[in-house]
Amino acid sequence: MNADRRGLPGRRQVLRTLAAAAGSGWAALAWSAPEAPPRVLDFEWTDAARQRSVPARLYLPERQKGPLVVFSHGIGGSRLGYSYIGRHLAAHGVASLHLQHVGSDRSLWGGNVLQTFERMRRAISSEEAVARARDLSFGLDRFAQEGLPFEVSTTVAAGHSYGANTSLLVAGARVGGAVQLPSLLDPRVRGAVLLSTPPFYGVPDLAGTVSPIGLPSLHITTNEDVIKIPGYESPASDRVAVFEAIGSRPKALAVFSHGSHSIFTDRITSADGPELNATVKQATRELVLAFVQGVEAHQLAPSLQLAARPHQAALARFVVQA
After folding, report:
1. Model pTM greater than 0.85?
2. How many H-runs (helices) and E-runs (strands) does the chain carry?
């Protein structure tokens, strides 16, 4: 029997045992051991039709067929972020494509400090929100054109903060009212992973915006997940409100007891500390993998329940709604 360093049954064996005990539906889930370290490929793509650069980083697994996650960073981020998720997914046979949105990336923090507010205003505009969603669809197009040794079986959109909003748009969110956005639904997307999702900026009708989404979604947040940027603030309760309003079925919510809004990035902030960061990141990457595997196998609820079980001590709330 596979065993950890304490002589107890290893995690992989425990999951297999639980799955087998739960019946054939659970046993069908593809719990896999880590493979070789992934290849990391950087691309300098340009969407000629929009005259917009779309840099990307790809974590490519050894396996030549499997799911693809396309990841959208939060405001001020880059393609280099969220590597703990990308590497973990690729080590388990899931390709992870991390895009960089040049209108709302790390360049926001450079230049004249006095112009930061104006740069931020442009970054959260409806024009940039649309451009980010189109970046994601363009990234899927270019991935298919690169001739990579990987056949995509299922595509999942994922993102953190502003990136979660981007994922919602390609998953079928409909933004109307005073701020109207065109339909940006990408039919290739079969599920959405939403980390620290804020309501759409300037859009009061949350239910009307996200209730049209029907594909599976996983929402991950914390009880301390407060967003504060120049000109915008969102309390932690907003993350749960998005989960409650979304029309996804099935949908799942994981709320960690502690952790700031930045804990889902690669940074280790003084507010969170290394131990909490490690705990939340390990659970997050395992939940994301379980979600992707569950969407692929059409066994989402059991997949997530198995993945969440070892992390109950860190979770204030975990729920799956069919």
Report:
1. yes
2. 10, 11
Single out the residue of 188, 199, 221, 206 nearest to residue 287, CA to CA: 221
Please state, in angstroms and rounded to a whole number, the distance separating the CA atoms of residues 41 and 57.
6
Structure tokens at 19: 């799955």
Is 68:156 a contact under the CB 8 Å cutoff?
Answer: yes
Give tens-digit pLDDT for 76-102: 899 999 999 999 999 999 999 999 999
Structural domains present in the chain = 25-321 (3.40.50.1820)
Round to whole Å and give the CA distance between 20 and 301. 15
Closest by alpha carbon to 215, among 197, 195, 192? 192
> Nearest to residue 61, comparing CAs of 41, 36, 80, 82?
36
Distance CA 167, CA 110 (A): 26
